[in-house]
Amino acid sequence: xxxxxxxxxxxxxxxxxxxxxxxxxxxxxxxxxxxxxxxxxxxxxxxxxxxxxxxxxxxxxxxxxxxxxxxxxxxxxxxxxxxxxxxxxxxxxxxxxxxxxxxxxxxxxx
Length: 110
Hints:
59% helix, globular
């Protein structure tokens, strides 16, 4: 829709993050903690809503699954995604949230 008002940062939940994170995945897929942190950092630069952040995690873990497994087994893939997403807790990022990188994200959510 051409005349739609721009989406606010806090409501931005599009696929822009997913389109940017393939390099993060290819570099960091063997180190889960680094991968999650890099994707989170990338995501909050343009998208404030958790659906965009978790959507990018789903994309990353989908790619990670494909890189780690020679065969694609649908039910194993779904179980893998569920387990990976359930294991992410945003409070894992709290020790770093006092960094200048996170201040704009925090301000918009307060």
